[in-house]
Design brief:
The structure is a homodimer. The first copy, chain A, has two domains: about 110 residues, Rossmann fold (3-Layer(aba) Sandwich), CATH 3.40.50; about 200 residues, P-loop containing nucleotide triphosphate hydrolases (Rossmann fold), CATH 3.40.50. Chain A is built from twelve helices and 13 strands. In chain A, about 35% of the residues lie in helices and about 15% in strands. In chain A, helix 1 packs parallel to helix 7 and helix 4 packs parallel to helix 5. Chains A and B meet through helix 8, helix 9, strand 11 and helix 10 of A and helix 8, helix 9, strand 11 and helix 10 of B.
Amino acid sequence: MAEGEFSALGAKTAVCYLRYRGEDVVAVLDSSKHGQTAGHVLGFGGEIPIVSSVSEALELDPKVAVVGIAPRGGQLDTTLRKPITESIEAGLDVVSGLHTFLADDVELVEAAKKSGSRFWDVRYVPETKLVASGRGCETGAKTVLVTGTDCNVGKMTATVELFHEAERRGMNVSWAATGQTGIMLRERGLCIDRVIADFIGGAAEELVNFEGAGKDLVIVEGQGSLVHPGYAGVTLGLMFGVAPDCMVLAHQAGRDHVRRYDDVAMPPVADLVRLHETVMAPVKKSPVVAVALNTADLDTASAEDAVSRLRKETGLPVSDPVRSRGSAILDAIMESLS
Amino acid sequence: MAEGEFSALGAKTAVCYLRYRGEDVVAVLDSSKHGQTAGHVLGFGGEIPIVSSVSEALELDPKVAVVGIAPRGGQLDTTLRKPITESIEAGLDVVSGLHTFLADDVELVEAAKKSGSRFWDVRYVPETKLVASGRGCETGAKTVLVTGTDCNVGKMTATVELFHEAERRGMNVSWAATGQTGIMLRERGLCIDRVIADFIGGAAEELVNFEGAGKDLVIVEGQGSLVHPGYAGVTLGLMFGVAPDCMVLAHQAGRDHVRRYDDVAMPPVADLVRLHETVMAPVKKSPVVAVALNTADLDTASAEDAVSRLRKETGLPVSDPVRSRGSAILDAIMESLS
């Protein structure tokens, strides 16, 4: 369900779900692109049809309706309420990453009682009152945090690509999902931005210790950005809770302002590399070992050009983890950890 | 109620309450110091007696029992449950800054129903889903954030001293309470470390806009520390939400590690000054204009020596806001804002 927002750079949850769990998808809902296919809009997703209503989707026999967009602040707005209600009335289970929980909405709960629908509010976090120790993962696993210069630059995508590449290399690896889309894909995780502020670090520490059990490496999905006016607290709390052995910095080529904050210019990426290392240092010496550059909206030549320029600027390995399947970045991680 | 912890450097809430609202206090509860006076233990608080039980305190006709200690993680432990229960049974109202709410405790609620006691859980925060704009206070008031190098270094004390000094100078000033003790003293405010992580900045922004209405200056109590493994997310979220015009850095003389984190060495204060300015810069150019040095556990000569050494190290005005009543620090703030 990506009403009005289905595009390569919008509807993040829907797009990532299609990228990594596309085999589970029977239809995308966006009446503004009705009749097109996912493949046509995204360049992947093949013949999965885009439908204009839940009733049209029902002909394809779905079992689950996934909320594929993430409105600012995570509210349940009218655009979303209609297809969610229709899905529930049709007996579909509903997965939602909204801050507003479906399970707290009296109308939706009543409708679900009648139809037998179940809800998974992926942002729901169990109450935790653990303050971070600063020691991060203590299972023996090494940890990498994929942090980013902004929201929606590809932290989760880089994390998943690195995980898949590590699996292809036969490594004993796990990944920790910390945001709504990642949790849906992973079918577990902890929505770190939903934790009470005092316990962000403690929750992150619990998560890496869970994912680190019996593993050699845990790749942790970062959240927000150290320069994001709204979400930087989440970012730093997660950094200190994970206390990673090294970091990868995700960035989108051409992003010159923090998204939705025209007043906040994006500092040069090289400065942001130093900022992350400087801020992290009092708790843990953790180098940024590579930049994961999102070039999704560039053609091949422009993408190569952007990668090469950022390599020069930062002196680090730079690579688009989708185009390169995470290979060069994982090399940099393994070299740093060895 | 400061059972087992009443001293100049412990029982922070009790000590601050005595310092700034001592005229409202009839007794301090700490059986380990039974028979002594607040003045004897703290150097202020005069003849206020230290009692060993709630029943002993009742002879002095109290109306309200204040939880004066803040156990790590804010839990309601057995040491606290006993005097709280006795207070409720005696019909006292109870004020608590614990993370665990009295109003959520079935036993305590039942007892209060019988006796008529009322609870004020000062950490309770109304649900907010506001993401920070990055613009901070927009009422026309200037803002100063009193941030710190660690927990329990004197951020709240510095804030209150600066507020009192500004009032003595006839300024049109307010202060924003962001932690449990400050909120008790101010009788309003917002417990920023209790907000859901995504909304730390938004809540801080709301608070400064509330306190800034009709004022020329708002002094904001900081929380945690940028180098605190557990609480740094709160600190940074508050910094970006307030987007202050300038900052004061609170520090305790001799603090060479983050409290309760023996592995985390305190960086030099001069480095921390730079760190705050560097981290703040992408959202707002905000200089650290002075250091508020807590010298509570030093004699006068040692205190003067510590102040003078830190002045040399940082090149900034340094002053103990309690000994100097905030005067030199307020001068530095006003010079920066002019």
